[in-house]
Amino acid sequence: MSPFSPFAAKLAVIPVNEHTVGVRGVTTHFWQYGQPDASKTIVMIHGFRGDHHGLEPIVAELGGDVRVIIPDLPGFGASDALPGVSDIQAYSLWLQDFYAAVTVPSAHPHSVILGHSFGSIVVAAALAGGLPAHQAVLINPIAVNALKGPNGFMTRLAVLYYKAAAVLPEKAGFALLKNTAIVRIMSVTMAKTKDPELRTWIHEQHDSYFSDFVSRASVLEAFETSVNNDVNQFVDAINARKDPVAFLLLVADRDDITALPEQKALASRLTGARLEVVKGVGHLVHYEAPDFAAHNIRSFLGLPPRQATSATTRTP
């Protein structure tokens, strides 16, 4: 994390180690934060075009008494791409195998799965496929098809952008995907905070990590997967599990990808789900309101609060 990060000081006191594991024949890089023998383990899955850095502010606010594991999704950050087509089934199977590799039941009996944005779809698919977690946290979940979200026009522009990147020659398509001006437009559109220092840092994060992918195929397949799937399609299979999953949904009232009414509808469909809403924040809860996220996660897991937070009373 950048030393200019507003969360750097809190993160610096939390132990962290990088590891690798072979999953489905390829190498996955992951980072372990906190105490290895902590009573709770959370496996966190980041969003589209991100990597493990994006969820570090939540780690910083959670504190070191929780063991957190964050992999780079296949094809992003330092992780290898999966062989063949990376569709939702491929991501689901990868996550089931990765989760099994890093959460040995005898050593980590109280493991939790967490997904942000695109990561929420991957988590939902894996849970529907039998991933053995009994508690799950979804942050800014993709509750409906992104084209039906409150900013559907921007999503359609994104579809055209990725289609153009796909049909261009390899070098030109790769350059388009990494175009700094387009990345900045995305960042400016999604950031809702009026704090100039926080906005600058968010843009820096996107500049640094939003274009860190293995290949053009990796990002194009992930985008196609993200717009063709949503959490809702997996709800029936999750609810039908013999081992129920308790859900915490952390959502924002200014999310450009999924509007609040759709988030509430998703929560009502997931048996026994708890919904918490942060005001004045959009799709970047992990950057703009990690204190809100950490406070509610600790409560959901039955852990004492680290400190009081007024995150739920934020103003636009």
TrEMBL record:
InterPro entries, per the entry:
AB_hydrolase_1, AB_hydrolase_fold, AB_hydrolase_sf, Epox_hydrolase-like
* Highest taxon, organism lineage: Bacteria
Which molecular function term from Gene Ontology is one that the record holds? catalytic activity
Domain named AB hydrolase-1: which ranges? 42-292
Quote a single Gene Ontology cellular component term.
membrane
PANTHER family per record: HYDROLASE, PUTATIVE (AFU_ORTHOLOGUE AFUA_2G14860)-RELATED, MONOACYLGLYCEROL LIPASE
Task: Please identify the protein, giving its name as recorded.
Answer: Pimeloyl-ACP methyl ester carboxylesterase
Q: Which organism is it from?
A: Alpinimonas psychrophila
